[in-house]
Amino acid sequence: MSVAPAPPQPSEPLPDAPVGGEDLLGVRIAAALIDLALLTALFAVLAALIGESTLEERAFSFSLGGAGFALYLALVLVYYLVLELTVGQTVGKLLLGLRVVRTDGSRPPVTAIIVRTLLRVVDWLPALYLVGFIVMLATGARRQRLGDLAARTSLARARPIPHRGVAAATVAVVVV
Prior knowledge:
Elements: H1 25-50, E1 52-55, E2 60-63, H2 66-86, H3 91-96, E3 98-102, H4 110-118, H5 120-124, H6 130-138, H7 146-151, E4 153-157, H8 164-175
Antiparallel strand pairs: 1-2, 3-4
Helix pairs in contact: 2-4
């Protein structure tokens, strides 16, 4: 069985980026928080459309149950899978200059991205990436989460892209 080569990554690829030379824990957490903000906005939109949502004077709440939550979880996994397969970065990673790479610094194959995406479900347990965070602390300077270890991937710095501030402003407006 042959595996298709990884698709080209169009935004600012680094040639065989060195992995592990810099502790990226803080930047990695910040990128995850940006992605979490976007995915929370998606949750709110889905809850308003197909779930339950209430808006009072100074408070709001929203929830998804059953099929609505399953749809949300599928969309979250698609978000990570499609972006990391096509450009090697989620929105958070793009804005903060990170890229998914193999542990040797090269581009990861499709199978590695699929494995790392599916294991996000375990990394999220019990809530807000707690397992992933503990594993990142346990892996020392490599800062790999469980999905990274299984897929043999890591994060490395990417070359800066022009107009990153414009992209950040756009994301902020969408989230607000």
